[in-house]
Each structure stands twice: as C-alpha cells, then as structure tokens.
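Example record used in the benchmark description.
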Amino acid sequence: MSVVARQRWLDATSFDCFGRHVLLTDRLAPDFQPEAVIGLLNRHGVRYVLIGGLAAALRGSPSVTQDVDICYARDQRNLTSLAAALGEIHAHLRGAPADLPFRLDAKTLGRGDSFTFTTQVGWLDILAMPSGTAGYEELAANADLIEAFDQTVLVASIDDLIRMKRAAGRPRDRAELEILGALRDEVDGGS
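Model output (structure tokens):
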C-alpha cells in the first residue's frame, strides 16, 4: 500500500464525514477486512472496479464505510471467478432469511445485477450496473490503478463516483456528494 493511500485510509477510518472521531468498532461491520476482499478478488483474477465508500476513501474522502462495493464484469469467465472467490469466503445474502435457497454460482450471478453479501471478511456488495452507469467497461475506462492494501486496485474516478451517488439519490449520499465535489475541485485546481 502506498504511503498516500495508507494515510487516506487511516484518515477515513478515524473520522466521520462531519469530522468527528469515530471508533471503528462503533461504526464498521464486524470482520470488516477490505484488504482481504481486495486480495481475494485479485487472487481469483476477478475483473472489477472498486466503487462506493472505500473507493471514495482511497480518493481522499474522510467518510467511513462499512463494506466493499465493486462493479464487476459480466462475461462468463469473470462470473465463474467471482463465484469461486465468493464461495471461498462463504458469502451469503445479507438480510435474507437463513433458510432461503440460494445457489452461489456463475449462472446465478449472471441472472442478477446487484447482490449484497455477508462474508467471513465483512460486507461485500457487487453491482453489474451501478446507478448512473453503463457498467464495468465504462467505469474501467475512467478508473485509475491505485496501490492499496499491498495490491493494485482499479478505483472508480471521482467523476464516476459523483455520478453514481447523484443517480442513486439516497439522502445519505448528499454529504458525500459535497465531499467528492470538493475533492474533484482540489484535484482540478492542482493540475
């Protein structure tokens, strides 16, 4: 992990979006291990773009996140790799009844679009077509490779993060939109 990415991550885990100090145990999902998720996906050769709060944190946002969000490529080979990775961490649908039949395989992933999982290493949300985007290919074209967690990660651009947050239209995204806008202005002003 680069010094800059590590410092951004440490900063993001210490303060909430209002600048208040936050203990990780108070705000994060139990077993939140983003480095394990990133390593697992990379080891399985999954083609994905990191989106959501962790991507924003790696871009400099001080907001705290409780999960890892990715946009995944939908070709058969990638779906097979993603299903194998999810199986390794015993992923199951978050919020679903324990007795709900669910087969975690490439075919199921191919039939769906967005899944929210609880895993041994924390919450993982996977989206084929995040709000406001055309999916993996579009996001990957604008993303940057960033060194984080001793891994190389394709991270969504600030502009794409803003577009996704705006399209999602959730009240909790309003503060993050302002933060991402300020980060974009800072980057644009520095170039």
